Amino acid sequence: MELRTAASPRDVKHYTTERLREEFLIPQIFFPDDIKLVYSHIDRIITGGAMPVAHSLKLTAGDELRAEYFLERREMGIINIGGDGTVTVDGSVHKVGSREGMYIGKGARDITFASDDAENPAKFYLNSAPAHTSYPTVVIKQEGTPKEGVVIVKEENKVELGTLEDSNHRVICKYILPGQVESCQLEMGMTHLEPGSVWNTMPCHTHDRRMEVYLYFDLPEDAFVMHYMGEATQTRHIVVRNEQAVISPSWSIHSGSGSRNYTFIWGMVGENQDFDDMDHIPNQDLL
Questions:
Q1: Which of 163, 186, 191 is CA-nearest to residue 254?
Q2: Residue 254 annotated as lining a ligand binding site
Q3: How far apart are CA 105 and CA 207, in angstroms?
Q4: How far is CA 274 from the centre of its chain?
Q5: 207 carries a ligand binding annotation
Q6: Is 169 annotated as a binding residue?
Q7: Percent helix, strand and coil across the chain, each to the nearest 5
Q8: Is 205 annotated as a binding residue?
Q9: How much is the pTM?
């Protein structure tokens, strides 16, 4: 588990490109037959990926958490961006297909990840936050029939925004949030930009009451996203490639424009779970 410290906006405006990437970019999330984790002091979020290929992978706490097991005092959200796979939680096997998600509540002890097909392995993207109580473990699907242990994303949580004329026609699919999948503080979802659109989260905003992490994917090798961050009057950019993630402090804008359309997963951690609690910034105020 890699550790990252918090950063002051007064310092960040003096960072070089290399320092900016070192502090906020996670250049590789998925490693074959391994679990990669990054622990950020910003709201104590843990971001990472599990990519089982030849064998299953067990999630352990490691020395960094000083815990008996990973979710002893934490909760976790998962979205699979690879092939079909399974997540086993305390002996219960849950099928998690491509673009499907999962929430695992505080207190789950034994968690293992496996792929159905080594030729098309699952890629389980993980976000974890400190938790004060336990909520039910569920699988999250975009379509289908609800049943025990499975939540279908509500229609009102599939939001179409933007226009092709503004290059930001996108569909937001909210996975973990109050009223659908309960959690202590974690929220997660996925946004897909339609062909011809490249801008996400525009007009941009900040939210002092929670931080965010973006994972960009569905990008070919020669494509990229310019991820914009920093204070509204001290903006900076980070070039992000396929399946790379960016940590966004609560004081920072978080927006991007790609060389083509793409998909990204957003995960938020903080004291306020009101999705619409944002401080919008007019385009003319950006510098």
A1: 191
A2: yes
A3: 25
A4: 17
A5: yes
A6: no
A7: 10, 45, 50
A8: yes
A9: 0.96
DSSP state of 143: S
Q: CA–CA separation, 149 vs 133, rounded Å?
A: 19
Q: How many CB atoms within 10 Å of residue 241?
A: 17
Whether residue 38 contacts residue 47, with contact meaning beta carbons closer than 8 Å, is answered with: yes
Question: Would you give per-residue pLDDT tens digits along the chain (287 residues)?
Answer: 999 999 999 999 999 999 999 999 999 999 999 999 999 999 999 999 999 999 999 999 989 999 999 999 999 999 999 999 999 999 999 999 999 999 999 999 999 999 999 999 999 999 999 999 999 999 999 999 888 899 999 999 999 999 999 999 999 999 999 999 999 999 999 999 999 999 999 889 999 899 999 999 999 999 999 999 999 999 999 999 999 999 999 999 999 999 999 999 999 999 888 888 888 999 999 99
Peptide bond just before 203 cis, omega within 30 deg: yes
- Residue 87 and residue 111 in contact, taking contact as beta carbons nearer than 8 Å: yes
Rg (CA), the chain: 18
Q: How far apart are CA 124 and CA 104, in angstroms?
A: 13
The 92-96 sheet, strands edge to edge: 57-58, 111-115, 85-89, 92-96
Domain containing 118: what range? 2-144+151-285
Give me the CATH number covering residue 66. 2.60.120.10
Q: Are strands 255-258 and 225-231 parallel, antiparallel or unpaired?
A: antiparallel
Residue 56 gets which letter from DSSP? -
Number of domains present in the structure of the chain: 1
